[in-house]
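Project standup — Tuesday

K.O.: blocked on the structure for the chain from last sprint. Re-posting the sequence here as requested.
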Amino acid sequence: MRIDLHTHSTASDGTDTPAELVRNAAAAGLDVIALTDHDTSRGYTEAVAALPAGLTLVTGAELSCRLDGVGLHMLAYLFDPDEPELLRERELVRDDRVPRAQGMVTKLQDLGVPVTWEQVARIAGDGSVGRPHVAEALVELGVVGSVSDAFTPDWLADGGRAYVGKHELDPFDAIRLVKAAGGVTVFAHPAAAKRGQVVPESVMADLAAAGLDGIETDHMDHEPATRARLRGLAADLGLLATGSSDYHGSRKTCVLGEFTTDPEVYAEITRRATGAFPVPGAGGTGA
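H.V.: unblocked you, prediction finished:
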């Protein structure tokens, strides 16, 4: 089985619609794909309607968190999307995204960049607007060469010249909320230092004690030595070790299935979940 547990669609900051995403996943030879858009479950219905036969969909989200001033992301799988407390927190994050992006546009304009809110809104479309949409605007304007080049202290990285904060969950609260909604939590790309400051690995033990289920060890932003070290850390802490692409369509260079999760780990994730269950494809035709 080929299992990719971290992907994004146009419901947040990917470039594939949810329907395109599942069709592309099937074409890439995947057996299981998780839809983990940022702080939203809006893509679920379209993805399920289009789900090809032979492909299983894991519903999820990537939750925006912050600990001691450092941003981090928590992957949440197979939770009840209608559980009130977790839904309320996701809506707070989502509702804060527009004023945050507008604030980044203002900061960029103050830096002499001729970006406009209308440009960023066009790029975001119906998705939850975020830094990648602002970054793409910078690419369009020729300010940077790629989306990743915008995530530097000069521009949009945490604490960067054009950075603006938003409502984010405490990761310990995120774990509690996801557990209460019947879901499973995995710390996304915890050592992706090229994105900005990361939390110390010593924090992993505290998160594990709070109920964290796993660590995303195999990821494009982790060097081989880092992956090996994180797998050892996961083993020491009794955590699951996952791998995934963090696919964003054409917005990033990673491809579907670039890294995958061991079938036994996937089976354990589904065993632990009680809020929702994987959806087997039935040859969907949704657009």
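K.O.: great, moving the ticket to review. The chain has a mean pLDDT of 94. The chain is about 35% helix and 15% strand.
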